[in-house]
Amino acid sequence: MLQSQQTLRLARVGAQLGGRRLASHGAPQFNEPSGFLFGEKPPAPGQKRVKESWENIWYIGMFGSMAFAVVMLYYKPDNGVESWALREAKARMEARGEKYKYEPSESSSSS
């Protein structure tokens, strides 16, 4: 019973609005394809393309941040598990008085 009342109420509201959909915002809008790159017509022969005011800022920001990321990745500290385990093993072996580098003894040489 409650559900049918809600359905009737919604139907009345829809009829008052003239059956329009409020969220559709009219007909679909899109830019028709023109065949030109980014919709820009090429300049006439002998003329240069005029940049817009935001383009230089975008180039500096985009490529500058990429260069910064490359530098930061190059100098990134090695915090991997294997590196930590190697440093820990070396420290523990040095604490016990053992050598962590292999050095062949004279008696093991094959002569």
Automatic annotation (TrEMBL):
Membrane protein topology class: Single-pass membrane protein
Cellular component per GO?
Answer: mitochondrial inner membrane
State the Pfam families in the record.
Answer: ESSS
InterPro entries the UniProt entry points to: NADH_UbQ_OxRdtase_ESSS_su
Localization, per the record, is: Mitochondrion inner membrane
- Would you say which domain of life the source belongs to? Eukaryota
Membrane-crossing residue ranges in chain numbering: 57-75
Q: Which keywords accompany this UniProt record?
A: Electron transport, Membrane, Mitochondrion, Mitochondrion inner membrane, Respiratory chain, Transit peptide, Transmembrane, Transmembrane helix, Transport
Asked if Membrane is a keyword of the record, the answer is yes
Protein function: Accessory subunit of the mitochondrial membrane respiratory chain NADH dehydrogenase (Complex I), that is believed not to be involved in catalysis. Complex I functions in the transfer of electrons from NADH to the respiratory chain. The immediate electron acceptor for the enzyme is believed to be ubiquinone.
Under the heading PANTHER family, the entry gives: ESSS SUBUNIT OF NADH:UBIQUINONE OXIDOREDUCTASE (COMPLEX I) PROTEIN
Q: What family is it from?
A: Belongs to the complex I NDUFB11 subunit family.
Q: How does it assemble?
A: Complex I is composed of 45 different subunits. Interacts with BCAP31.
Q: What is this protein called?
A: NADH dehydrogenase [ubiquinone] 1 beta subcomplex subunit 11, mitochondrial
| Organism of provenance | Lentinula guzmanii
